[in-house]
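User: I want to check something. If I give you two sequences, will you return the structure for each one separately, not as a complex?

Assistant: Yes, each is folded on its own. Here is the first sequence with its structure:
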Amino acid sequence: MLKATDLTALMETYDADFARLKELGKAAIDHAAVIAGLRQNLSYLPDDLNDLNANYKTLVKDIQTVYGGLNSYQKKLLSANETKRLDAVAKIDADSLTALAVVKLAMGANNDNNFPIIRITHRVRRSSALRP
């Protein structure tokens, strides 16, 4: 901190200090916005985490990254239920989420009555990415 010897020096010191304060203000964390974004992302997950599949991979990783980066103050803004759910999401191996198989339907009239016949050639598998 500099000592000003006249009004011009005082104003220059004030301007420099005020500019620095504005820079620091821009870098401030909006805790409420961080938590709101995390809550919104949580709302996109299915109620039963066993229903997660590879379509949720990026979302799960994003939630894990944000949750892992929360400071103690931000964690206090979460409810007990949110913390419990986030802890469960944190244990998921997002890279192991099962990709849903493509289900192919073939329709045709291959019988004597000309009734439509539908053949399913692939089935959907359940995810096994949740760790015990």
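And separately, the second sequence with its own structure:
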Amino acid sequence: MRYLVGIIGLLVLVAAWMLGGFSGTDVRFQSSDGEWADSEILFKGRSFEMVLVRFELYRARCAPTAVLERATPEPSWWSFEHWFNNYGQPKWRVPYASPLPKTGSGYFPPVSAKHCANTGASAEEERAARERARRILGGSAA
């Protein structure tokens, strides 16, 4: 019976791994001016590249001197999630900064707020932001 439980447990872990259950840590990001924040949601497919595109749109429209900061510290080596991260990914090279008061939740500004980041982007602005994000990712520095 003990062996059966062990085998079932191992199969559950393998299935979770294959389905992306151990895909790493969702990381929060913020702007250095504290007026913008966004987060990855890896389970839903919201990647660092998507967050970077949104930041580049924010920077182009609202704060040209803003710098992207990572508001999630690296998990400590003894935590479970530490072992499922690839610290060579560009998102972990973004400099860490403590979450700012407005951006602590991981999302700012609220969708309902009047803010330059909440105005729609033209197709040209979107294309330029995607290109800047790809250049940053291609250079392996964020």
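Because they were folded independently, the notes below concern the second chain alone. The chain has one domain: 24-138. Residues 24-138 form one domain.
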